[in-house]
Design goal:
The structure is a single chain. With 281 residues, this protein is an alpha+beta fold. The chain contains eight helices and ten strands. It has a three-stranded antiparallel sheet with strand order 6-1-7, with helices on one face.
Length: 281
């Protein structure tokens, strides 16, 4: 009997598809090509001139070049300064090798430092403790800006002085001239007011905005006319006709400033009306 031939059937295992993973190619970012802006506080290499304060012009004036200190906020401590001709820094803790001390001398009130002397320039412009005390750096642009501010202030003061009423003009000029104002004509008063506004624009504008100027002037007029009287010790205001005490002046306060403040109280407003009637009689 023929043997049955065993047929082996090979089974192929199913193919399992693996998910495809896409590898992303990272591109190297290109550097931005924006133009680098120059910070406003960046140090500028240029020639610099330093002047003694107060318009002083001695033949020579030496300022300290050693034994001075600068407080470094980043490091949190004071650092010693010294100007040495053979060093690239004025900070002693950064110096290397010998230290040949050099003098800092102003001649005829000024010191010119060329742009190749950066160590001395930075010492004088940034770190020296006597900057803006004994000397200052001459900056034409800054001076021009300050002059423009002053001119604008003069214009504002002159315009205000031109349009101000005569009573306010008298009150302001009384601060400047005192009782002399009472003898001036209206045209003389106007002229002096304009001159005052031109020469002292800041003070003029402060007085023009001071609500107590008129009240102080009112009090002075009341005393000049004899309605009120200021005691010899300047501690009390009295009635001029009978010497009765009207008000006590607070300690360390100007008498007429105190009177102006008192006129704003309930009692003071009644007295103000009384005095106003007498002044207008």
């Amino acid at each position: 009997m023929a043997k049955k031939q065993k047929i082996e059937v090979e089974t192929t295992p199913p193919v399992v598809e693996q998910p495809k993973v896409e590898t992303q190619v990272m591109e190297t970012p290109k550097p931005e090509t924006r133009e680098r802006l120059k910070p406003s506080n960046e140090w500028e290499i240029k020639d610099r001139v330093y002047l003694l304060k107060g318009n002083k012009k001695p033949l020579s004036r030496t300022i300290k070049a050693a034994g001075i200190y600068y407080f470094d906020e980043e490091k949190g401590y004071e650092r010693e300064l010294k100007y040495c001709q053979n060093q690239k820094t004025s900070f002693v803790d950064e110096m290397k090798g010998d230290q040949r001390l050099e003098h800092i001398i102003f001649r005829s009130g000024n010191l010119f430092v060329p742009k190749n002397q950066q160590t001395l320039q930075k010492l004088l412009s940034l770190y020296h403790p006597h900057k803006d005390q004994i000397y200052y750096e001459y900056k034409p642009a800054k001076l021009a800006e300050e002059e423009i501010d002053m001119l604008n202030m003069q214009v504002d003061a002159l315009v205000a002085a031109k349009n101000i009423d005569i009573d306010m003009a008298e009150a302001i000029m009384r601060v400047e001239k005192g009782s002399e104002v009472s003898s001036l004509s209206s045209k003389e008063l106007r002229r002096d007011l304009l001159v005052f506004a031109r020469n002292n624009p800041k003070l003029f504008l402060e007085l023009a905005d001071d609500e107590n100027v008129m009240l102080r002037n009112f009090g002075i007029r009341a005393v000049e006319s004899g309605i009120l009287r200021l005691s010899s010790d300047q501690r009390n205001f009295l009635w001029g006709n009978n010497g009765r005490k009207l008000m006590v002046i607070p300690f360390d306060e100007h008498p007429y400033t105190a009177l102006a403040h008192w006129f704003k109280t309930d009692e003071g407003m009644e007295i103000y009306s009384n005095i106003e009637k007498r002044l207008n009689e």
